[in-house]
Model the fold of this input.
Amino acid sequence: MNSTSENNDIDLIRFIFALWKEKWLLIFFVILSTSLGFFVSLKQEVKYKSIITIDINNIPPVIRPNFFYNTFKKTFESKDFFETWKKDNSTSKIIFDNISPNKIVDDILLSKDSRTRFANLKIKKKLLVITVKTNDISLLDDLYNYCNDINSKLSKEQYLLSKRELIKAKELVIREPYLLSTTKLHNNVYFFTFRYFHYISQFNNGLDLFNINRPTVPTTTSIPMSLKIGIYAFVGGILGLCFMIFKDALRNYNKNHQAKRKLKR
Done:
């Protein structure tokens, strides 16, 4: 047992001595991999993202919030709406390809990968989240204004719809008052009448359908250059160490093989 322990200690000391002897080889691997990591980092594009969140601000009765979120998303990705908006905002740097979920390849319409899209819309719980991959402040501002114009359009549509529904409810009360004799129907009519009136009143006071939050400060999504170079240096050190262990093992094998051949003679 003591003999085995002593042999292990001798092997460890010999291995450490061999590492020290070949230290320049290890340093070479670390420098080579670090240089490689540095040049790779220089060539890779730094990626950024900013987030625009949208939540319901003033909702008409009956209709669920997800309906409006889906309507907003559909309008946001509408080519017809974008082209109309672009005519009034010709100085904007946004192009339809920035917001379109599709692309044409060999005359075939294909869906873009959500990871590669410039602006990606997702409904998360009670929010509509737009992730924008840019650090261009003017582009983010244009996109924010684009969202506000969609908000104005949809809010106006719901305002007109609510006015029509309110008029219908009033006409129903005047034309067929006997229908309100049942308590349940009576309560429903007055409930929805109040809700439509409330939405119209809120709209007239400047409260739109959605609350559009301004874009967040762009943050990088790429691995920091220092961390990336550190990873390359670590991997280079591991490779250098493995090479030295292999070289030492090969040297020992050759020594043992030569020793056996001498004993046979």
User: Anything to note?
Assistant: The radius of gyration is 35 Å. The CA atoms of residues 26 and 241 lie 6 Å apart. Helices lie at 2-21, 23-43, 65-76, 79-88, 96-99, 137-175, 183-204, 225-264. Strands lie at 48-56, 102-105, 108-111, 119-124, 127-132, 210-212, 219-220.
